[in-house]
Design a protein that fits this description.
The protein has 494 residues and is an alpha/beta fold. It has 17 helices and 17 strands. The strands form three sheets. It has an eight-stranded mixed sheet, sandwiched between helices. Strands 1-2-5-4-6-7-3 form a seven-stranded mixed sheet, with helices on both faces. It has a two-stranded parallel sheet with strand order 15-16.
Length: 494
C-alpha cells in the first residue's frame, strides 16, 4: 500500500467549513481537473437535495461521465482538492445553515478497487462534532460503466472503509486533534450521496481521419471506430473452440507466429458480419470498417492516395483496432477486372496486407471465387472460415436470442421446437425475419399459427441451398492455407 504523501488542513473564508485533505500521490495542478470540477458543479443542487433527505435512505446519485482526458493520480488528487474547497464546501455550509450539522467524505479511486484509493478529504462545518451527519461521496475513474446502480451504491461500503482508514492513518500522524471526528464516520453507517464514475476514453479511438491534398483538390475522410456488438457466444458452438485455438489465443498472447488475418465466406445471411465482430471482440479490438465509397474517386490516382492515407492511419492504431472489409467481392480477381483503377486499388491493399506491422484484418464475402487468390494466400490472410446454413442447435440458439431481444411472448415451449423444426435451410437472417413477422401477426405474441403464417411468406429452395452447401464443401478443399469449416450435414440441418 502506497504511503500518504500529502496531508493538509484547509480553511475556507467564503464558507464556514474546514477540510482535512490527504493524498497518496503528489498533487499535480492540471487543466483536466478543473474541467472535471466544472462538470461536478453542475450537479451541486442534486447533491444538496440528497443531503437534506430526511428519510436517510440507502440510495443516492449515480453519475456517469464520459471524459476524454486521461487523469493521472496527481491530477485526480487535484480534483479532490478543488472539489472539497468549492462544490463540497458550499454543500456542507448550506446544509449546516439549514440546521443539519453535516460533513462530506470525498474519496477518489483509480479503478473499481477499494485499494486503489488516490486521495480523500473530509469537509465539515466548524460547529460539527463527533457523531455528525457524515455523508460519503466517491469518484471512481476508469472503472467502466455501472449497469446495476443499486448494487454499485451498496458496494461503496468497502470504498468508504478504505477511505476512512486512509484518513485515520494520516490524521493520526499529523492532526490528532481531529481524529475523533474522522473515527465517527464509522458510527453513522454508509449512506452515500453519490457515486461518480468517470469513464476514461483517452485511450480509445473514436474515428480514423485521413486527409489528401493534391494541388487544388482537398479531401478529408472520417471513418468511425466502433465497439463490436457481438461476441463468441453468438456463434455456433461447434466453431468457437477451433477459432480460439487457431486465431484468438495466439493473437491475445502476443505470440510472434499468430495469424494476422481471417477470411469468412458463406451464403448471405448466415452471420459472416456477426462472426467478424465477434472475433474482433474476442481479440479485445474495436472495429474499423473499410468501404469502397469512403475512398474511391473519379480522378486518376486519387483513389490509391486516399486508400493509402486511410490504411496508414489504421496501422498507427493497429494495437487497438481490427480492420474489417465486409463484402470484399469489390476486390475482384485480376482476371475479372477491366479497369486499371481497380487493379491499382487491389495492388495497394495487397501491399498493405503484406506488411509485418499490419493490424488484424477480417474479410467477408459471399462468393469467394471473385476474390483475387493473392489476397487469401498465407502471409496475408492465413485463416479461411467457411460458414454454411445453420444446424438445429444454432437455429434454436438464434431463435431464443431474437425472442429475448425483441421482448416477444411465446404461447408455450412447443412453439420454439416448432420454429426450429420448420426452418430447415433458413439462414439466420431469414430466421430473424420469420420471428419478427410472426410477432407482428400476433401483436407481440407468437404461437404455432403465427409461425406457420409467417413461414409461408418466406420462400426458400432446399435444392438450391443443398447445391450451395455442396459447393462450399468442395471449395473448402481447394483453398490454400488454414481452413475452418462450419458446414452442417443435411441430417444436422433437418
Amino acid at each position: 500500500m502506497k504511503e500518504v504523501t500529502d496531508v493538509r488542513l484547509l480553511w475556507s473564508n467564503l464558507y464556514k467549513v474546514r477540510t482535512i485533505f490527504t493524498s497518496r500521490y503528489d498533487v499535480v495542478e492540471n487543466h483536466k481537473s478543473y474541467r472535471l470540477l466544472s462538470i461536478l458543479a453542475r450537479y451541486a443542487s442534486d447533491l444538496y437535495e440528497l443531503m437534506l433527505d430526511p428519510r436517510e435512505r440507502n440510495s443516492g446519485l449515480i453519475l456517469k461521465i464520459d471524459y476524454n482526458k486521461k487523469l493521472s493520480p496527481g491530477a485526480l488528487s487535484h480534483t479532490n482538492l478543488l472539489a472539497s474547497m468549492n462544490v463540497v464546501s458550499e454543500l456542507v455550509d448550506s446544509v449546516s445553515q439549514a440546521g443539519v450539522f453535516s460533513a462530506v467524505l470525498l474519496a477518489t479511486f483509480k479503478t473499481f478497487d477499494p485499494k486503489s484509493v488516490v486521495s480523500c478529504s473530509l469537509t465539515f462545518s466548524r460547529s460539527a462534532s463527533v457523531g455528525a451527519n457524515i455523508k460519503p461521496l466517491a469518484i471512481v475513474v476508469s472503472g467502466g460503466y455501472v449497469h446495476d446502480s443499486r448494487r454499485a451504491i451498496k458496494s461503496l461500503g468497502a470504498f468508504i472503509r478504505e477511505a476512512q482508514r486512509t484518513l485515520e492513518e494520516s490524521v493520526g500522524m499529523y492532526r490528532r486533534d481531529h481524529l475523533d471526528l474522522v473515527k465517527s464516520i464509522g458510527l453513522v453507517g454508509y449512506k452515500p450521496i453519490a457515486l461518480v464514475v468517470v469513464q476514461n476514453k483517452a485511450v480509445s479511438v473514436e474515428e480514423i481521419r485521413a486527409v489528401v491534398s493534391d494541388g487544388n483538390e482537398y479531401r478529408e475522410v472520417k471513418i468511425p471506430v466502433r465497439s463490436p456488438a457481438w461476441s463468441l457466444e453468438d456463434l455456433p458452438p461447434k466453431i468457437v473452440e477451433e477459432l480460439k485455438l487457431v486465431v484468438i489465443n495466439p493473437f491475445k498472447n502476443g505470440l510472434p507466429f499468430a495469424t494476422r488475418g481471417t477470411f469468412i465466406t458463406g451464403p448471405p445471411g448466415v452471420g459472416k458480419s456477426v462472426m467478424a465482430e465477434a472475433i474482433a471482440n474476442a481479440l479485445g479490438l474495436r472495429v474499423v470498417e473499410l468501404k469502397p465509397f469512403t475512398y474511391r474517386s473519379m480522378w486518376y490516382g486519387a483513389t490509391e492516395k486516399m486508400l493509402n492515407a486511410i490504411l496508414n492511419q489504421v496501422y498507427r492504431k493497429r494495437k487497438e483496432v481490427a480492420l474489417v472489409i465486409d463484402d470484399a467481392e469489390f476486390l475482384s480477381s485480376r482476371k475479372y477486372t477491366v479497369h486499371e483503377a481497380h487493379l491499382s486499388e487491389l495492388s495497394t491493399i495487397l501491399y498493405h496486407l503484406q506488411r509485418t506491422d499490419r493490424p488484424f484484418t477480417i474479410l467477408t464475402g459471399n462468393n469467394p471465387d471473385l476474390l483475387d487468390p493473392a489476397l487469401l494466400r498465407p502471409g496475408r490472410v492465413d485463416v479461411t472460415v467457411v460458414v454454411g446454413y445453420p444446424d438445429r442447435d444454432m437455429r434454436r440458439k438464434a431463435a431464443l436470442r431474437n425472442i429475448s431481444k425483441y421482448g416477444i411472448r411465446v404461447v408455450s415451449g412447443s412453439v420454439l421446437d416448432y420454429i426450429v423444426s420448420n426452418t430447415q435451410w433458413c439462414s439466420l437472417a431469414e430466421l430473424d425475419a420469420l420471428i419478427r413477422l410472426a410477432a407482428s401477426k400476433g401483436f407481440g405474441t407468437i404461437g404455432i399459427e403465427e409461425v406457420e403464417w409467417a413461414k409461408k411468406r418466406i420462400l426458400i429452395s432446399p435444392s438450391e441451398r443443398r447445391s450451395i452447401q455442396d459447393y462450399l464443401r468442395w471449395w473448402s478443399t481447394k483453398i490454400q492455407g488454414i481452413v475452418i469449416t462450419y458446414i452442417p450435414s443435411e441430417s444436422e440441418i433437418s
